[in-house]
Amino acid sequence: MVNDKKNILVTGANGQLGNEMQVMARIHTAYHFIFETKEALPIDDLAAVDRYFDQHPIAYCVNCAAYTAVDKAESATETAMLINGTAVGNLALVCKNYGTQLIHISTDYVFDGTATQPYKEDDPVSPVNFYGASKLKGEELALQVNPKTIILRTSWVYSRFGNNFVKTMLRLMAERASINVVSDQVGSPTFAHDLAAAIMKIIIQLHQPSKSLTDTLRQSPVFNYSNTGVINWYEFAVAIKELSGSNCQVNPIPAAQYPTPAKRPGYSVMDTAKIQQAFDIVIPGWKDSLRQCIALLKN
């Protein structure tokens, strides 16, 4: 019997989103998933990527691999640019050559954070730190060599897996009587589980795209995705405290009191209307998703 399941390659398999895609693999059994770490598939090595695709027929590639240490990126510029920039261009080129649909994960950090209303996909980009600059380079290289690349920009990602704000807050709240959290940076959290579910919905719709979806992708294949609702980091921490039942005191502080090597955008809210419309995706509210994540962590 011939196995006609389409192969989905997920790079960066050990990260938050990579792990959530592994959860999706158990649900979406009509596909065959291949999960690769950066050690097994170094996407910065063009020849290695080409050999890999030559040996494995890949229908969809979801690139979750990224250098995400925002502060370290300020000094490790070469490494950040290699993984977030050059490697994405490599992957896009190989995907084009082998007829593979690339879905690449990018970031709200491509914007400068000075807006007063949610960023649309075609708003001007101007990163304020090197991490953002390296991710923008990846977007540009991918679209230059493979204009069919779908780019998903996301923000404030957290999950039950890996290291993230939610898990850090839960740990600090268990260790300390009080914590200080920045209150003048605004955005929308993204539960990686919801993003993974959205990616699967996109892949399913790409099988037989409607005319309106085809037109949208032809105009621009860049989309924003985050959970709905707008909060600051302090409000996020207070919600984590309440949902986890912690007694820790959470204090708001300005970002100026918490200096970091990399500057952070003050406003990271993105307009998600385009992805909801194009792929008929219903995006959960941030608090419902946070509740779900905390319940999973408790279990």
List the helices and strands and how they pair.
Blueprint: E1 6-11, H1 16-27, E2 31-36, H2 46-55, E3 60-63, H3 77-97, E4 101-107, H4 130-145, E5 150-154, E6 157-158, H5 165-175, E7 178-182, E8 186-187, E9 190-191, H6 192-207, H7 211-219, E10 222-225, E11 231-232, H8 233-244, E12 249-253, H9 273-279, H10 286-298
Parallel strand pairs: 1-2, 1-3, 3-4, 4-5, 5-10, 6-9, 7-12
Antiparallel strand pairs: 8-11
Helix pairs in contact: 1-6, 2-3, 3-4, 5-8, 8-10
Please explain how this structure is put together:
The chain is of the alpha/beta class. The chain is globular, with a radius of gyration of 19 Å. Helix content is 42%, strand content 17%. The termini are far apart. It has a single domain, classed as 3-Layer(aba) Sandwich (Rossmann fold), CATH 3.40.50. The protein contains 10 helices and 12 strands.
Task: Briefly characterize the structure.
With 299 residues, the protein is α/β, with parallel strands linked by helices.
Read across the widest sheet, the strand sequence of neighbours is 2-1-3-4-5-10
| CATH fold group | Rossmann fold
Identify the CATH architecture.
3-Layer(aba) Sandwich
Q: What is the overall silhouette?
A: globular
Low-confidence stretches: none
Structural key phrases:
single chain, globular, alpha/beta, Rossmann fold
